[in-house]
Amino acid sequence: MKIGILGASGQVGTALKENLTTNGYTPLLGSRKATADYQTNADVAKAADLLILAVPGQTVLDLAKQLKADLKGKILVDVTNAITSDFSGPKTFAGKSQTQLLQETLPDTAVVKGFNQTGSANMIKPEGSVQFFAGDDQAAVKQVTDLAKQMGFAPQALSLQDSPLLDSLGFLWIKAAIQLNKQPNLKFYLK
Ligand SMILES: NC(=O)c1ccc[n+]([C@@H]2O[C@H](COP(=O)([O-])OP(=O)(O)OC[C@H]3O[C@@H](n4cnc5c(N)ncnc54)[C@H](OP(=O)(O)O)[C@@H]3O)[C@@H](O)[C@H]2O)c1
């Protein structure tokens, strides 16, 4: 399975690349501009089977529209947290999560929400912390949870209708990490 990271130069992309590389993968690295170290996001979307979407929350739907044809038949893991401009909570869209809108935008792509309820340092060393993954394509969710387990997380599968809960949990992680001064190492466990 070829893995690609969209927005690979950011904190999340860099951390997930490190974990995946440690676990024997050679992820393709996407950026808005091709350089010596990065391909374009479009080239990565064309070449990979499983894409990790690690760009700022407000850019997600535009990028999805641009890459729609390249993402057809692929798995897209949505790591992003869309947060209101006044930092009061996750953005919702008439009760739906941005991940649900992403799935509506990309009907021929299996969208799976996850890796958003933790910090980038934990993406390098998850140490058995829990990570929920929400999607409607059960085979895709299984592929992602199997991968997350290999990376060192304790994954739990949910359906796409649960994705607003994951946005809330992602926001709770940010708030708790700030309050406890534990950014970026706070971990959630299921015990
Ligand atoms: N940081 C964390 O600990 C953490 C944890 C959980 C979830 N998240 C979520 O994961 C996502 C990425 O977080 P991050 O901290 O890695 O963000 P980041 O460092 O700010 O950005 C990631 C990358 O996105 C690309 N990018 C920036 N603006 C873009 C645009 N308009 N269109 C397309 N690509 C653009 C940039 O790469 P190029 O310039 O190379 O294109 C950038 O390096 C966010 O949605 C965040 O909420 C973050």
Automatic annotation (TrEMBL):
One CC-aspect GO term: plasma membrane
InterPro entries: NAD(P)-bd_dom_sf (IPR036291), P5C_Rdtase_cat_N (IPR028939), STEAP_metalloreductase (IPR051267)
Keyword Oxidoreductase (UniProt): yes
Gene Ontology terms for molecular function: cupric reductase (NADH) activity; ferric-chelate reductase (NADPH) activity
GO biological process: copper ion import
Keywords: Oxidoreductase
SUPFAM superfamilies named in the record: NAD(P)-binding Rossmann-fold domains (SSF51735)
PANTHER family: DUDULIN-RELATED (PTHR14239), F420-DEPENDENT NADP REDUCTASE (PTHR14239:SF0)
Name the record gives this protein: Uncharacterized protein
